[in-house]
């Protein structure tokens, strides 16, 4: 009897311990998930309410998380390509800026990194150090000189003004550089022996095997570009090239906040990012892990 | 495979470059003769866009380029435009910042370029918000103005036999106001007797805009408006007593805390009995409470009453390519019947007498008539001084700290020193402080 109880007791403890641990984990994960999801849920629910007054009246109570008569009117009013605040246009502008910046950014940063890692460039180490040093310069401190350059170049209120200055980044050059220098020298030499030019080696050999780091750069640069506010605010004057981040701010007036429109526009701004994330979440995780390991 | 991928990438990049070049071409083609920078609520953006189109139709050959800038980032955009030497021809500005802009040399007087009947139609409060105190010239004009009123529930006040003031002369005295707060605090269901809209926080103009009149009514000010010194005024006995009094309301639990949001007056169960709100608050309250909302004048804390004024007004910049044309646009806009009609629909607070007469909400007998009467009798502009950005920041931080329990004397002295230091750093913002 005592032998049996001696053998059973640890097993029972282990089972209870596992259960308690699982419950604690479940509760913790649920709480964290609620904390993360509830603002997003509130955002979507509020965007379906009939007007800003209803949103204001419900704010601060649990009714904020409930909509009795959901309506898509806020989306209909916001998703327009004409009128004083054409959010459809702003969203499209944002997508164009995002697409061009990320694509151009991958191209330029990886080329610079390739030259720094493998090119016959005098003073490579100094240039690389200068690049890294540049990373500590905050964007806000260069906004005014950059604005003057953009104005003098006649690029004000264009897509180019929002794309060109931000494609190249010391951080991304350094990130890709770190990846490139870990590729064995034999790979480069073999391609050279085959008669490939440096650009051909970069394009046909290095780029195809750099998926993880390029994905990391694309994701980081994409998020950075999508959330840009100060710079587009400075360089855009009209709806021609204004992105949605600046457009949303128009709902915060001097007298009132138009929460219904702001919420609908925010959902519209969030949706592409969310869809992109859900579609590529495996890439997100693996690319961040790989860059963390390499970094 | 890689070559195909490369070709695709190159073609995409080519398209991107073409897009950029196309957009550059578009912006050049749309270059405007009259650049107008403004901000506003979404409905205002529509109103201004519409009136610009009507102006273009009425004045063939003149193009209006509208630079709509989000309200919260307006000053940053102005700063950037100044630095880049690209100020527009016409710009909107928040009235209390006018002195700073004129002193900095951004604006020019508009008395000579605006239609005379329009100038004659301005209310005294509107003139005061657009006038530079040094040369007494008008630099800005607007269709609208603003004020703050006291809102309550007619049913609740009548049930408690609380007198409802019907005119400015009839406003509650300080003792009466505090008795009302005490009475309301004792009511079951009333969580806070008054919402002072602390939820607006220190990142807006609210504290200076809405609370400074309390100080003025209690016999002091944020700065001496003759010597332009804050020390001795803002940290003087009268202001310290006034700030301590206001702090006491918070200590008693009478004021809606900052964290509770700005909807407590009309939220379910009406946790806040009264609201010290801007004229725009009427629409929010009315939407939830209907005709039960009653609008009252601000209390008279001392010998005289005081109320805030000032809103976003229109000015012509010093670098305007054609000031006469800019004046023509402003005159057209402010007299345009459709423009006025749209502002009327959105309960715009009148800054022109004719607009007031045509606005049922503010005309005699209207729900907000007492608010308009208040603007004509007790409006006090915020200090029209180039140091205003510093004045408002220092005062707002001080009042916020005082509400949070800090020592009033200490906080106001700190604010006064900060304001005076800024004025000294700028050599007194001459000629301010040197003229009578």
From TrEMBL, chain A:
It comes from the Bacteria. Signal peptide: none annotated. SUPFAM superfamilies: MetI-like. The keyword Cell membrane applies. The chain crosses the membrane at residues 20-46, 95-118, 125-147, 159-180, 201-223, 257-280. The keyword Plastid does not apply. It is a multi-pass membrane protein. Keywords: Cell membrane, Membrane, Sugar transport, Transmembrane, Transmembrane helix, Transport. It is found in: Cell membrane. Residues 91-280 form the ABC transmembrane type-1 domain. InterPro entries: MetI-like, MetI-like_sf. PANTHER family: ABC TRANSPORTER PERMEASE PROTEIN MG189-RELATED, ABC TRANSPORTER PERMEASE PROTEIN MG189-RELATED-RELATED. Belongs to the binding-protein-dependent transport system permease family. This is Multiple sugar transport system permease protein.
Automatic annotation (TrEMBL), chain B:
The keyword Cell membrane applies. Belongs to the bacterial solute-binding protein 1 family. This is Multiple sugar transport system substrate-binding protein. Residues 1-31 form the signal peptide. The keyword Transferase does not apply. It is found in: Periplasm. It comes from Kaistia dalseonensis. InterPro entries: Bact_solute-bd_prot1 (IPR050490), SBP (IPR006059). Keywords: Cell membrane, Lipoprotein, Membrane, Palmitate, Periplasm, Signal, Sugar transport, Transport. PANTHER family: ARABINOSE-BINDING PROTEIN-RELATED, POLYGALACTURONAN_RHAMNOGALACTURONAN-BINDING PROTEIN YTCQ. It comes from the Bacteria.
């Amino acid at each position: 009897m005592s032998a049996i109880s001696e053998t059973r007791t640890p097993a029972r403890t282990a089972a209870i311990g596992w259960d308690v641990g699982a419950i604690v984990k479940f509760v913790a994960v649920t709480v964290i998930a609620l904390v993360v999801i509830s603002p997003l849920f509130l955002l979507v629910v509020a965007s379906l309410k009939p007007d800003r007054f209803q949103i204001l009246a419900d704010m601060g109570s649990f009714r904020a998380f409930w909509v009795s008569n959901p309506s898509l009117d806020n989306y209909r009013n916001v998703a327009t390509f004409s009128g004083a605040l054409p959010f459809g246009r702003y969203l499209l502008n944002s997508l164009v800026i995002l697409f061009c910046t990320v694509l151009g950014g991958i191209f330029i940063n990886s080329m610079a990194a390739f030259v720094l890692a493998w090119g016959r460039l005098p003073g490579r180490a100094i240039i690389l150090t200068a690049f890294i040093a540049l990373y500590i310069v905050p964007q806000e401190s260069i906004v005014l000189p950059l604005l003057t350059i953009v104005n003098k170049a006649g690029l004000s209120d264009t897509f180019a003004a929002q794309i060109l200055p931000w494609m190249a980044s010391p951080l991304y050059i350094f990130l890709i550089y770190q990846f490139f220098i870990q590729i064995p020298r034999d790979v480069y030499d073999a391609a050279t022996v085959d008669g490939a030019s440096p650009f051909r080696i970069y394009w046909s050999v290095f780029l195809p095997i750099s998926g993880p780091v390029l994905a990391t750069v694309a994701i980081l640069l994409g998020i950075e570009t999508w959330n840009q506010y100060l710079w587009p605010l400075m360089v855009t004057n009209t709806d021609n090239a204004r992105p949605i981040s600046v457009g949303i701010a128009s709902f915060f007036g001097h007298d009132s906040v138009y929460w219904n429109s702001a919420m609908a526009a925010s959902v519209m701004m969030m949706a592409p990012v969310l869809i992109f994330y859900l579609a590529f979440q495996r890439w997100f995780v693996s690319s961040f892990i790989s860059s963390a390991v390499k970094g | 495979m890689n070559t195909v991928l490369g070709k695709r990438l190159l073609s995409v990049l080519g398209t991107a470059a073409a897009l950029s070049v196309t957009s550059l071409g578009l912006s050049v083609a749309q270059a405007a003769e009259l650049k107008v920078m403004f901000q506003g609520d979404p409905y205002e953006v529509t109103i201004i866009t519409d009136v610009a189109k009507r102006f273009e139709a009425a004045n063939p050959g003149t193009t209006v380029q509208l630079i709509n800038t989000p309200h919260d980032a307006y000053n940053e955009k102005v700063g950037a435009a100044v630095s880049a030497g690209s100020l527009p021809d016409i710009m909107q500005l928040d009235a209390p910042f006018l002195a700073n802009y004129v002193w900095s040399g951004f604006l020019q007087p508009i008395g000579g370029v605006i239609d005379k009947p329009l100038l004659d139609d301005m209310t005294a409060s509107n003139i005061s918000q657009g006038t530079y105190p040094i040369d007494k010239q008008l630099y800005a004009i607007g269709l609208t103005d603003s004020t703050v009123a006291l809102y309550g529930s007619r049913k609740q006040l009548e049930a408690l036999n609380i007198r409802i003031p019907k005119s400015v002369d009839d406003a509650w005295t300080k003792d009466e106001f505090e008795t009302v707060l005490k009475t309301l605090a004792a009511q079951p269901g009333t969580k806070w007797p008054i919402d002072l809209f602390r939820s607006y926080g220190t990142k807006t103009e609210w504290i200076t805009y809405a609370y400074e009149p309390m100080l003025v009514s209690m016999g002091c000010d944020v700065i001496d408006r003759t010597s332009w010194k804050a020390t001795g005024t803002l940290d003087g006995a009268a202001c310290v007593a006034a700030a301590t009094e206001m702090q006491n309301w918070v200590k008693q639990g009478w004021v809606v805390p900052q964290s509770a949001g700005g909807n407590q007056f009309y939220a379910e169960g009406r946790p806040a009995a009264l609201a010290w709100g801007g004229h725009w608050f009427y629409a929010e309250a009315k939407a939830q409470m209907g005709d039960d909302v009653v609008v009252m004048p601000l209390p008279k804390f001392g010998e005289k009453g005081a109320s805030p004024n000032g809103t976003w007004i229109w000015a012509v910049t010093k670098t305007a390519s054609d000031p006469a044309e800019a004046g023509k646009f402003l005159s057209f806009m402010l007299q345009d019947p459709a423009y006025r009609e749209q502002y009327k629909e959105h309960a715009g607070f009148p800054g022109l007498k004719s607009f007031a007469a045509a606005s049922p909400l503010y005309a005699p007998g209207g729900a907000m008539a007492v608010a308009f009467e208040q603007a004509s009798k007790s409006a006090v502009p915020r200090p029209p001084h180039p140091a205003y950005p510093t004045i408002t920041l220092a005062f707002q931080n001080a009042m916020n700290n005082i509400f949070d329990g800090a020592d009033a004397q200490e906080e106001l002295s700190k604010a006064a020193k900060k304001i005076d230091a800024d004025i000294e750093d700028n050599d007194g913002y001459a000629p301010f402080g040197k003229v009578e």
